[in-house]
Amino acid sequence: MPFRRYVEIGRVALVNYGPDYGKLVVIVDVVDQNRALVDAPKMVRSQMNFKRLSLTDIKIDIPRVPKKKVLTEAMEAAEVQKRWENSSWGRKLIVQKRRAELNDFERFKVMLAKIKRGALIKREISKLKK
Amino acid sequence: MAKSEKPRVSRNKELIRGVGRFSRSKMYHKRGIWALKEKNGGSFPRHDKQPPQAKAVEKAPKFYPADDEPKPLINKRKPKPTKLRSSITPGTVLILLAGRFKGKRVVFLKQLESGLLLVTGPFKLNGVPIRRVNQAYVIATSTKIDISTVDASKFTDKYFEKEVVRKKKTESEFFEAEKEDKKTLPTEKKEDQKVLDAVVLQAVESVPDLNQYLSSRFSLRSGMKPHELVF
């Protein structure tokens, strides 16, 4: 039951509220008990309340308040984006986003595919039951 | 007049508002009033009013209404042609929202002069014939079919007009139970449907699963939020 994800310099977090919703940011400094200074390669460095951040497992190695170039290089070296997209949390978000932008025909095709898959599974199960 | 009008150019360029480049006498010359006068023998051609032709004598009406009723104002308003939503182009799959075919997914052919949309099932897939539908009762999906080879020119608003049946006022027919002839579709219309649908079905078959898609009805399921759905 101990805490595993700590607020520290280099912790990658997901913004869960506000105009930057859904973006991955790195905590580069702590302002006070409630706020962190936060930065991302394509974002202006700004402060955010911790309540707006959801901490992830990913942590990178950076000095306190690094220059943008240093930050970008550190993120590339640690392969933050790739690790995020391979994590189950990251994959879930990608799937949710894809589902939200399906059009009516695509939703129909998904339904057909689900039915087909279900039929295959049932067939295998019935084989095993015999 | 039906002559193609070129944009009218002024012969007298405006220097400042109210002041032209040329004076009155110069403008008289430029306009060629002198030439018109010459042509007309010294004076500007006049078209005098012709004496009014004697009207036929109208009899006084037999009946005058008791009170002078106020006449309603003249209304010369012409409604504008219905604007077609930009998401609806020929070949778009539409979802019908009202009427007998609600929920059916249907192929859009063209907009008619009345503003209504011409639409076909195709009939074989979902039972929707060539039909007119109002834009307001339709959701346009982003699925488009290529119907460039389809010729829908024979279908106009007149095609869909009801045929006027003249009833003869004979006594016998009055007392007989109303014989309603079963209104069957004339065979030509059925043929039109087949011809049109043949081309449309070709286009539909070229896309996998599209025929099943058009055969099924749209419905909202649990968790589907219409305002968040992408069509």
TrEMBL record, chain A:
Every Large ribosomal subunit protein eL14 domain range: 45-117
Q: Span of the secretion signal? A: none
InterPro entries xref list? Rib_uL2_dom2 (IPR014722), Ribosomal_eL14 (IPR039660), Ribosomal_eL14_dom (IPR002784), Translation_prot_SH3-like_sf (IPR008991)
Entry GO CC: cytosolic large ribosomal subunit
Please name the CDD domains in this protein's record. eL14 (cd23702)
GO molecular-function terms, A-Z = mRNA binding; structural constituent of ribosome
Question: Which keywords does UniProt give here?
Answer: Ribonucleoprotein, Ribosomal protein
Q: Which GO terms describe its biological process?
A: ribosomal large subunit biogenesis; translation
Family membership noted in the UniProt record: Belongs to the eukaryotic ribosomal protein eL14 family.
Protein name (database record): Large ribosomal subunit protein eL14 domain-containing protein
Taxonomic lineage is: Eukaryota, Viridiplantae, Streptophyta, Embryophyta, Tracheophyta
Automatic annotation (TrEMBL), chain B:
Question: What GO cellular-component annotations does this UniProt entry give?
Answer: cytosolic large ribosomal subunit
Recorded GO MF terms: RNA binding; structural constituent of ribosome
Q: Where is the composition biased (Basic residues)?
A: 74-83
Q: Where is this region: Disordered?
A: 1-21, 39-85
One Pfam match, by short name? Ribosomal_L6e
Report the Gene3D superfamilies cross-referenced here: 2.30.30.30
**CDD domains tied to this protein:** KOW_RPL6
Extent of Basic and acidic residues compositional bias? 1-16, 39-61
Family label: Belongs to the eukaryotic ribosomal protein eL6 family.
- What is the protein's given name? 60S ribosomal protein L6
Species:
Picea sitchensis
Q: What is the lineage of its organism?
A: Eukaryota, Viridiplantae, Streptophyta, Embryophyta, Tracheophyta
